From TrEMBL:
Superkingdom of source: Bacteria
InterPro entries with a match to the protein in the record: N1-like (IPR000026), Ribonuclease/ribotoxin (IPR016191)
Coiled-coil region list: none
This protein's UniProt keywords: Hydrolase, Nuclease
Entry-linked Pfam families: Ribonuclease
Entry annotated with the keyword Transport: no
Region (Disordered): 35-78
Ranges of Low complexity composition bias in the record: 35-56
Protein name per its UniProtKB record: Ribonuclease domain-containing protein
Amino acid sequence: MRNRSILPLLLLAGLVVLALFAFGGTGFLGQLTESTTPEATSTAEPAPGAASGTPAAPAPPPPAQANPSGLPEVQESALPAEGRRILNLIRAGGPYRYSQDDQTFGNFERILPRRDRGYYREYTVPTPGEPDRGARRIVAGAGGDKYYTDDHYDSFKFIAEGS
């Protein structure tokens, strides 16, 4: 009789281990929570255009590339200071402050050029004085194209890097 009472517990433990494996160890809600410590790092793949491994210093901005989107442009130098800092982190491959950073951006708004799922990744641009992540983001494409939004995806501007 004692063995029968252990069986449901073993099955439950197995399901928990399977769920942890399926959700990358963070659990289902792990992707919905923020880390407020600057030391938090992403375990996802390196950012588009970033070198693998731990870089010693941020890479220099790449030469300006043509705007493939037809969207308005913003010069890198015209971004807010926080945006320029996040661009340097993207080039260096992190670390990122929020668990949502360096995650797939779905482009559900269909403002950016249509690409296969997984092409775009999103990054938070902190807003001073905001109690949460705020509305500012940089979205980076696997081809090196990067876009800035300050209104939580209602509009985007192509970032002209190196200028």
